[in-house]
Amino acid sequence: MTVSFCVIAYNEEKAISSLFQDIRNQEYPHEKMEIIFVNSMSTDNTKKMMERFAEENNHFIRVLIADNPKKVQAAGWNIAINTAREDIIIRIDAHTQIPSDFVKKVVECMEEGESVVGGQRPNIAEEDTPWKHTLLLAEKSMFGSSIAPYRTGHHKTYVKSVFHGAYRREVFEKAGLFNENLGRTEDNEMHYRIRKAGYRICYNPKIISYQQTRSSWKEMIKQKYGNGLWIGLTTGICPRCFSLFHFVPLLFLVGIILCVILLIVGFPIWFKTLGIIYGSMNVLMSIATALREKWHWCYLLLPIIFLSLHLSYGIGTLIGIFKMPYWRKKLKVHINNNR
User: Fold this and answer.
1) Could you say which EC number(s) this protein's record lists (predicted)?
2) How do residues 104-125 score in pLDDT, each as one tens digit?
3) pLDDT digits (tens, 9 = 90+) for 273-303
4) Same domain, 105 and 252
């Protein structure tokens, strides 16, 4: 089987060099792989680095570089899909590391009869410093991130979504392309349509790719807020795209708001109860997260980091839900104007 290996990048000059090396090191025959880079109008040296890679003689079928004028990630994926010519289309983020057997494992799973496959997504840190490692622990933790199967699963199974998915070409021909009006949630919506089209999404723990954790606490908070915001907005067009765990931070935030209101009107017991339950769980999960690590004082900040991630995600979701009616109206006008 031949493979179209697709990468979307925007201002990734610091991260993409290591991904280039990972691509070079792939054990799967290079003469059965084409590489497609989509540059989302980067303002740094990302495109020049892509061009230098394309000039190398790595024996790939071809190395193609395309521009994504819209800059939106979903639009970039659609450009890659429309450009790809091979049997399997693999989507990889630029801020990623992949082992040398990644493509080989994907193809092996496809040859067993699967149409959509993906695997584990362990987090890694850009730098091995105590503070960066603390942020990594928060992101790796089920309490700080989520219980999505692609984060924790150890057995082959069928799931609602996967990280760094690989797809037979026919899947997009039947289910359609990515919704370019979405940000952050384009995977959820796409995978929902893929399932509706009759395909199963296979999670195989033998397939592993690594995602780099955001480099700062501020960036992590910004990421969680953005994830929550787009979940709130996307509920207006595809509520079935999500599972209950996507809304847990929102429920936590709503619980805080209700308990504060009850506190103000003279019923402090609910606020105290929520504080005790969440605080105890937060401390216990922080201890469990740091227990196997070599001790450092930065780990004392884990409860605060967890709280900030939960609140930012919940606030983002709540604001997204409030903005959703206006966003839907604006989206409808945009679609009508482009017909």
Assistant:
1) 2.4.-.-
2) 999 999 999 999 999 998 888 8
3) 999 999 999 999 999 999 888 889 999 999 9
4) no
Do 74 and 205 have their domain in common?
yes
**Domain shared by 117 and 246, yes or no:** no
Q: In 3D, which of 14, 15, 9 has the Cα closest to residue 40? A: 9
Could you tell me if residue 223 is inside a domain? no
Residue pointed to by tokens 């792939």: 26
| pTM score of the predicted model | 0.89
Contact 210, 164 (CB under 8 A): no
Same domain (yes/no): 47, 134:
yes
Task: Print the domain residue range for 310.
Answer: 232-337
Q: At 39, give phi and psi (nearest 5°).
A: -95, 120
Co-location of 148 and 46 in the same domain? yes
CA gap 306, 288 in Å, rounded: 13
In angstroms, the CA 32 to CA 19 distance is: 19
196 and 84, same domain (yes or no) = yes
Residues 102, 135: one domain? yes
